[in-house]
Write a structure and sequence with these properties.
Two copies of one chain form a homodimer. By secondary structure, the first copy, chain A, is an alpha+beta fold. Chain A is built from two helices and four strands. Chain A has a four-stranded mixed sheet. In chain A, a hairpin with a 6-residue loop joins strand 2 and strand 3. Strand 2 of chain A pairs antiparallel with strand 2 of chain B, so a sheet runs across the interface.
């Protein structure tokens, strides 16, 4: 599942406010929102998908220079990291 | 909620295959996958978040020239369209 979508913007607060005012996404006065849903199998489990804007000069995406970043949820982060590290680095 | 994430890629099939082989995302032989989840309130309602790659020359994102596109689910598409059209166009 998608864990988060992060997008660089010239004016993150303005953009978040636009989404709040026009589409009702509850950013409030911030630049971060979290969609809430339930796991398809384990219906008691609430999941979160972050949606957030960042200033263009953020180092949060480093070393990527992309304007956007996608986070994915994995069942076991350490296993996934070990597997990818072994295969690709 | 996020309805879909669409990303232009030099080689969409290769990239989809990479995600399948390394992260287990079930693209199969295609370039389209759909995450499934449940609505937080109405737990009987299954929701879908598309995740798909497109060739760089696709016109699917037009008139945007961006490399990626984010779709949002809305409760009432016609109302949302009418509201945005009235306010912004």
């Amino acid at each position: 599942m998608i864990g988060g979508i992060f997008i660089k913007a010239k004016d993150p607060k303005f953009l978040a406010r636009w989404y709040e005012d026009n589409l009702g996404i509850g950013f409030g006065t911030g630049i971060y929102f979290s969609f809430k849903w339930r796991d398809k199998q384990n219906t008691d489990e609430i999941g979160y998908t972050a949606f957030s804007f960042f200033p263009e000069k953020t180092d949060y995406f480093d070393p990527s220079t992309s304007d956007s970043m996608l986070n994915l949820r994995v069942a076991n982060l350490e296993n996934t990291r070990a597997l990818l590290t072994k295969k690709w680095y």
